[in-house]
């Protein structure tokens, strides 16, 4: 969590870090963390089985906090970077972000990430997926 906070500060400090993080593979690592969080959201018992009962509640909260930091960092990395958006899509990050919109605990962060994808080139597909989600969402979640 501390490392992600530091990386987030770096990305906000200087534009060059967007390229650096992509080149050294941190963008891919963050997308993998996003996939792990999506799996945790899909099957919360997965975290229960992997860890002991005494650490479970704090660990799940830590994973949630880490995932929100990852999504915030990804949003910053995608702002104005066509290359990062393409790589994010290539690693399955866009599909993952669209899939976790349905979970209220991370909806805001997922939508911020999707916003950057829609604003990037080839954002038409993301806009179509988002509109499809709105069509299938219950009225209370719109």
Report on this structure:
By secondary structure, the chain is mainly alpha-helical. The chain has helices at residues 2-13, 16-23, 26-42, 45-50, 56-78, 82-90, 93-100, 107-119, 124-136. The chain contains nine helices and no strands. The radius of gyration is 15 Å and the shape is globular. This is WD repeat and FYVE domain-containing protein 3.
Oligomer type? single chain
Largest sheet: none
Note the beta-strand portion.
under 5%
Low-confidence stretches: none
How confident overall, as mean pLDDT?
A: 86
Which structural class should the secondary elements be placed in?
mainly alpha
Annotation field: number of helices: 9
Share in helix: over 70%
- CA(first)-CA(last) distance: 31 Å
- Please give the number of β-strands: 0
| Computed Rg | 15 Å
**What is the string of helix and strand elements?**
HHHHHHHHH
Give the overall shape: globular
Summary of the model, kept short:
This protein is mainly α. It has helices at 2-13, 16-23, 26-42, 45-50, 56-78, 82-90, 93-100, 107-119, 124-136.
Q: Any key phrases for this structure?
A:
142 residues, mainly alpha, 9 helices, globular
Explain the layout of strands and helices.
Layout: H1 2-13, H2 16-23, H3 26-42, H4 45-50, H5 56-78, H6 82-90, H7 93-100, H8 107-119, H9 124-136
Keywords: WD repeat
Organism: Saguinus oedipus (Cotton-top tamarin)
Protein name: WD repeat and FYVE domain-containing protein 3
